[in-house]
Structure formats: structure tokens, C-alpha cells
């Protein structure tokens, strides 16, 4: 953002529980500052690209000041297993203040409509976040397919489903490899996962560039979710020409063209997921789906077109 040379007001928030509590004392003054900046700038819209714990405290004042507030709503419901405290209060205040909203899947758009039937909702696609990704290392002779499942390790991500699917899949593909990486406790979510043959677990925070490198080095991205609004990993995979295998939940079914750039399991079961993974174990099928992923990636890397869609939505 700094490199773009645009007017910027970067506000330090908090790094600890104590800082979080103390930070609320600054919110009223910061909210007034934001309103004043938007008014002085002659802003046509104030866009919230992702909700923050301070957003519901700031958004109502924007509406009272006559400013158009447009939130990008990533989730219309709390993910199962994630903290839901004050969820409804937060989202209600944001939608009450909104002139319109932006969603990244029909699933989330439907959730917004259920809460606010009259609120205009603009539908945008999630693009591929790529920058200087190195090509994958050469494959060793006889090496099997490499699967990756990345991101925050949470209950709704279905790691137990992936564990059970791998138990069914791996004996038929003994040279296959699976990498599970992200912040969280994988063993608490899927006991025994890290002990399975061919599985590596890296339980730590992943920066965006590291996630891109890991995806680029894989043959297949696995999304074994039990619930999903949409996935940022799916467009990243397609942007790198990597096919995706996923469970048929929420926005995932919208992001994949089944049989073209990935495969959707028939059901949210270990057996169905293992079956879809086995199909991607076939090199010929995998190559065809990788070609489809590369084609999808070209569209998801067209940021000029996506910027145009955003501007059109805001103008409407």
C-alpha cells in the first residue's frame, strides 16, 4: 500500500489482550478521524475490505454522517467450532449501517439476504493472490502425487475427514504424499493424522508467500471442509495451475468447475473424498484438470477486470 503512493492512514491496533482492551478507548477518536478524512476527501464510498473487531463501533457513525458504507462480507454465519460470541451483534450493526454489501459467493450473498432482504448485494469473485512465486522443484523419479491442505487449522476445515480419507486412499497409492500446514492444533482436531504414512504436519502460521510456494510445489490442493463460505486457497491453486479436490459445501461448489479444474466429492464423507482423491491419483486425469486450473487462473489473475467489477458495483 505504501508503495502505491496513495493517501494512507495506518492505525496500530493491538498485539495482546491488554492492548485489545486499551484499544477500545481510542476507537471514538479514531472513528471521528475516519469520518473527517472521508468527508474531506469527498469519498463516494467507504469500503470495509474485511471486518475487524472495531468495525461495528465505527460503521454506524459513517451512516449518520451521510457516508456510504459498503462492507465486504466474507462470512454470513460463524464457522462451526469458531467463537460466535457477539457475532450477530457485530454483523447486524455492520449491515444496518451498510448502503450495500459485497459477497464473494452466492452462499454468503444468500446469508446476507436472509438477514436484510432489501439490502443490495454485489457478487464479486475472489482473485488469485500471486506475486513472484517460484516454480516447483523437479519431481523425483517414481514419486507419487503430492497433496496439500493449508490454512488455519479449525474444526470446520474437516481434518478428521481428511485423515480418514487418507487411510482409505494411501494404501492404493503408497508413494503419495500429504502436507497439512497452518496455525492450530492438528492432533486435537484429527488425532493420529501426523502418524499416518506419507503425511507431514506443520502446525504454524503461514505467510501468504509461503502458502503460494507450497501450493506451487503440489499436484493437488485438498479442501475437506464440513462448512465453507468460500476459500481463498482455491483461487490461489488455480492461479498456479493446481487442481482442487473439495467437499461439496457452501461456496466451494461455486468456485470449482467439477471435472474441469478440480473435483467435488459426491458427499461430505471420508469414502467420497478418498474416491475423488483417487481420481486425481491418475496422472492423465490430473494433467487434464491442471490444464483447466491454468485456464481458470488466467481469469482469476485478471485484476483489471476485477477492479472494473468493483467500481461498477460501487457506482450502482
In what range is the share of β-strand residues? 5-15%
Radius of gyration: 21 Å
Q: Which of globular, elongated, flat, extended, rod-shaped describes the shape?
A: globular
Biggest sheet details: 6 strands, parallel
Main features:
6-stranded parallel β-sheet, single chain, 316 residues
What this model shows, in words?
The protein is α/β, with parallel strands linked by helices and 316 residues long. The chain has helices at residues 17-23, 27-41, 55-64, 87-97, 106-115, 159-169, 186-189, 208-216, 233-239, 252-255, 270-280, 283-300, 303-315; strands at 46-48, 69-73, 101-103, 121-123, 146-150, 177-182, 199-203, 220-223, 244-246, 262-264. It has a six-stranded parallel beta sheet, with helices on both faces. It has a four-stranded parallel beta sheet with strand order 1-2-3-4, covered by helices on one side. Helix 3 runs parallel beside helix 4, helix 6 crosses helix 11 and helix 9 crosses helix 12 (283-300). The chain is globular, with a radius of gyration of 21 Å.
How would you summarize this macromolecular structure in one to three sentences?
This protein is an alpha/beta fold and 316 residues long. Helix content is 41%, strand content 13%. It contains 13 helices and ten strands.
Amino acid at each position: 500500500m505504501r508503495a502505491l503512493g496513495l493517501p494512507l492512514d495506518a492505525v496500530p491496533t493491538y498485539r495482546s489482550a491488554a492492548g485489545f482492551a486499551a484499544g477500545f478507548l481510542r476507537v471514538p477518536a479514531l472513528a471521528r478521524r475516519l469520518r473527517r478524512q472521508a468527508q474531506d476527501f469527498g469519498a463516494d464510498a467507504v469500503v470495509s475490505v474485511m471486518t475487524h473487531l472495531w468495525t461495528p463501533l465505527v460503521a454506524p457513525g459513517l451512516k449518520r454522517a451521510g457516508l456510504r458504507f459498503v462492507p465486504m462480507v466474507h462470512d454470513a454465519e460463524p464457522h462451526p467450532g469458531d467463537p460466535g460470541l457477539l457475532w450477530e451483534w457485530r454483523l447486524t450493526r455492520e449491515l444496518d449501517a451498510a448502503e450495500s454489501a459485497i459477497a464473494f459467493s452466492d452462499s454468503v450473498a444468500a446469508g446476507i439476504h436472509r438477514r436484510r432482504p432489501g439490502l443490495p448485494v454485489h457478487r464479486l469473485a475472489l482473485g488469485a493472490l500471486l506475486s513472484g512465486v517460484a516454480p516447483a522443484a523437479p519431481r523425483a523419479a517414481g514419486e507419487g502425487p503430492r497433496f496439500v491442505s493449508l490454512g488455519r487449522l479449525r474444526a470446520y476445515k474437516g481434518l478428521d475427514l481428511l485423515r480418514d480419507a487418507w487411510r482409505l486412499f494411501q494404501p492404493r497409492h503408497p508413494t503419495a504424499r500429504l502436507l497439512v500446514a497452518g496455525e492450530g492444533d492438528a492432533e486435537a482436531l484429527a488425532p493420529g493424522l501426523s502418524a499416518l504414512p506419507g503425511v507431514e504436519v506443520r502446525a504454524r502460521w503461514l505467510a501468504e508467500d509461503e502458502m503460494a510456494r507450497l501450493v506451487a510445489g503440489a499436484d493437488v490442493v485438498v479442501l475437506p471442509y464440513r462448512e465453507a463460505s468460500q476459500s481463498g486457497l482455491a483461487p490461489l491453486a488455480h492461479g498456479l495451475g493446481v487442481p482442487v479436490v473439495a467437499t461439496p459445501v457452501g461456496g466451494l461448489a461455486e468456485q470449482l468447475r467439477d471435472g474441469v479444474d478440480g473435483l467435488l466429492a459426491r458427499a461430505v464423507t471420508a469414502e467420497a473424498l478418498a474416491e475423488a482423491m483417487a481420481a486425481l491419483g491418475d496422472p492423465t486425469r490430473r494433467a487434464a484438470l491442471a490444464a483447466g486450473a491454468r485456464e481458470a487462473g488466467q481469469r482469476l489473475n485478471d485484476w483489471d477486470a476485477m477492479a472494473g467489477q468493483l467500481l461498477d458495483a460501487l457506482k450502482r
